[in-house]
């Protein structure tokens, strides 16, 4: 058969055009009931929930760094102050308590003032002995507490200063207060070579 | 169906079963017909058509609109399935195909696949000239079968064949020429 004859034969060839309506319908039902569209609806929910989840996580992270973490650090600073032997003496024997804590970078400032009962008994602004004194005297009548500076990384009280008529750290400019450095105790000095 | 309408429908069909159903209703006869004319076997044509639509549904999200009709993509999937059928002694149904058979049959009590199959087999026997040509064609390599079937059985233009097979129009023309020569040699 010649090339042209074959082409003519193919072009005029009657080809089967058979339909299977039952198969078509059954396949249609199976496709539309397939897992694909059920998975699709699950994906839609995932798309809706994803930004909500991200927003909740952002709020949680921001909340942690702005609210929770500062509170943890403030509590930690209070604990360091409470555990300091010198401060322990003040707190226990001289009727003082931690009134306020403020964070600045890696440091904390802890305000220690008269307990309310002392204020009631002796007036608002006197009768708290200075460090080293055991008696209330006229020389400290303007005194109402201490500010302790805490190095959070080193976990120790590094300086302190006296304050008068202060119950809140918001009332004072920390830069204006002369803080005396506390020398580390002998046991905390770095050890030298044994030999 | 207009290309712009089809584009929108394909986009919707990724999520919307009704949109997919519209595409299916439109293209099922063409794809089933193409597969049947390639294989000349009703049962195999059913399986391959089913597999083609399941694969299309599964990969619909990968379909990128390049101003080529959706049908070209479907024909391409079907062509790959047909070639797979010719490569293997027996066409293996995928799990999804077996699953759909169970689901589909359960959902459609009025469907009698046996009688529909027998009826169709009787019909295809009447196309003797076609069957002669198809038997000769089946002996040729797949690349020649494809172009002849698409050009003469499906009445596709060279441009459309090029879109379906992902080849240049010039390549299709030379493939078609060689395919006719090979078919003529078979007697």
Mean pLDDT of chain B: 88
State the helicity of chain A in percent bands.
Answer: 40-55%
Order of helices and strands of chain B: HHHHHHHHHH
- In what range is the share of β-strand residues of chain A? 15-25%
Characterize the main sheet of chain B: none
Largest sheet geometry of chain A: 5 strands, antiparallel
CATH architecture field of the largest domain in chain B: Orthogonal Bundle
Structural Rg of chain B: 17 Å
Put simply, the count of helices of chain A is: 5
How many individual helices of chain B?
10
Overall number of strands of chain A = 5
Q: How far is the first residue's CA from the last residue's CA of chain A? A: 112 Å
What would you note in describing this structure?
The complex is a heterodimer of chains A (195) and B (187). Chain A is an alpha+beta fold and 195 residues long. Chain A has a domain at 68-186. Chain A contains five helices and five strands, in the order ααααββαβββ. Chain A has a five-stranded antiparallel β-sheet. In chain A, 19% of the residues are buried. Chain B is an all-alpha fold and 187 residues long. Chain B folds into two domains: 1-120, RNA polymerase sigma factor, region 2, helix turn helix motif (Rna Polymerase Sigma Factor, Chain: A), CATH 1.10.1740; 127-187, Winged helix-like DNA-binding domain superfamily/Winged helix DNA-binding domain (Arc Repressor Mutant, subunit A, Orthogonal Bundle), CATH 1.10.10.10. Chain B is built from ten helices and no strands. In chain B, helix 3 packs across helix 4 (70-87). The longest helix of chain B has 23 residues, at 17-39. The radius of gyration of chain B is 17 Å and the shape is globular. Chain B starts with a helix and ends with a helix. Classes of the chains: A alpha+beta (195), B mainly alpha (187). Chain A binds chain B through residues 1-3, 6-7, 9-11, 13-34, 36-37, 40, 44, and chain B through 14-15, 17, 20-21, 24-25, 28-29, 32-33, 36-37, 40, 42, 46, 49-50, 53-54, 57-58, 96, 99-101, 103-105, 107-108, 110-113, 116-117, 120, 123-124, 127, 129-130, 133, 148, 151-153, 180-181, 183-184.
């Amino acid at each position: 058969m010649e090339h042209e004859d074959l082409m003519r034969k193919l072009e005029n060839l009657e080809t089967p055009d058979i339909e299977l309506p039952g198969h078509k319908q059954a396949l249609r039902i199976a496709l539309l009931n397939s897992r694909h569209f059920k998975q699709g609806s699950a994906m839609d929910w995932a798309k809706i929930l994803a930004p909500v989840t991200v927003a909740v996580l952002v709020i949680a992270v921001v909340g942690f760094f702005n609210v929770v973490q500062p509170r943890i650090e403030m509590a930690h600073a209070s604990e360091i102050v409470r555990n300091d032997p010198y401060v322990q003496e003040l707190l226990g024997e001289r009727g003082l308590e931690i009134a306020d804590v403020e964070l600045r970078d890696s440091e904390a400032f802890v305000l220690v003032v008269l307990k309310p009962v002392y204020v009631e008994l002796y007036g608002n602004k006197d009768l708290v002995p200075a460090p080293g004194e055991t008696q209330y005297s006229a020389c400290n009548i303007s005194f109402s507490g201490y500010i302790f500076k805490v190095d959070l990384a080193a976990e120790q009280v590094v300086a302190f200063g006296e304050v008068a008529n202060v119950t809140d750290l918001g009332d004072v400019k920390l830069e204006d207060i002369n803080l005396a450095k506390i020398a580390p105790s002998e046991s905390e000095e770095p050890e030298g070579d044994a030999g | 169906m207009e290309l712009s309408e089809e584009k929108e429908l394909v986009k919707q069909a990724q999520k919307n079963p009704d949109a997919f159903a519209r595409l299916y209703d439109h293209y099922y006869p063409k794809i089933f017909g193409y597969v049947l004319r390639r294989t000349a076997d009703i049962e195999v044509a059913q399986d391959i058509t089913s597999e083609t639509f399941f694969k299309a549904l599964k990969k619909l999200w990968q379909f990128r609109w390049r101003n080529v009709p959706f049908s070209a993509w479907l024909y391409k999937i079907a062509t790959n399935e047909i070639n797979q059928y010719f490569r293997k002694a027996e066409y293996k149904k995928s799990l999804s195909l077996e699953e759909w058979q169970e689901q589909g049959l359960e959902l459609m009590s009025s469907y009698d696949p046996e009688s529909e199959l027998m009826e169709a087999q009787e019909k295809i026997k009447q196309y003797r000239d076609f069957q002669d040509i198809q038997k000769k064609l089946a002996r040729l390599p797949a690349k020649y079968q494809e172009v002849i079937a698409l050009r003469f059985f499906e009445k596709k233009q060279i441009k459309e064949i090029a879109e379906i097979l992902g080849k240049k129009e010039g390549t299709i023309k030379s493939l078609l020429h060689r395919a006719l020569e090979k078919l003529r040699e078979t007697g």
